[in-house]
Design goal:
alpha+beta; 3 strands; 1 helix; three-stranded antiparallel beta sheet; Double Stranded RNA Binding Domain; 89 residues
Length: 89
């Protein structure tokens, strides 16, 4: 029988011209919480399109979060197998 779990990622965005900052927080059903952060900076000559900064900052935060999640999985496998484990990204 399949078991279904729900994990949630909250993304908090803030802006300070010309930058956008994203903070991604993963919440699991086992109380694990991991975080990733990302930023985007608009050049003075770029058009002001806030959605683009949000997208870039969020993508970078999620990339960092994914790397941290792979690191946590590597650590968990290593603890079980009693050896160092590296999962490729």
């Amino acid at each position: 029988m399949a078991h279904t779990r729900t994990w949630r990622v909250d993304i908090h965005l803030s802006e300070d011209d010309p930058g956008t900052h994203a903070h991604a927080v993963l919440h699991t059903d086992s109380a694990t919480q991991l975080e990733g952060r990302g930023s985007a900076r608009r050049k003075p000559t770029d058009a002001q399109v806030p959605e683009i900064g949000d997208e870039i900052a969020t993508a970078r935060a999620l990339r960092e979060l994914a790397d941290r999640l792979l690191g946590a999985a590597s650590d968990d496998i290593g603890a079980i197998e009693h050896r160092e484990v590296h999962l490729p990204g």
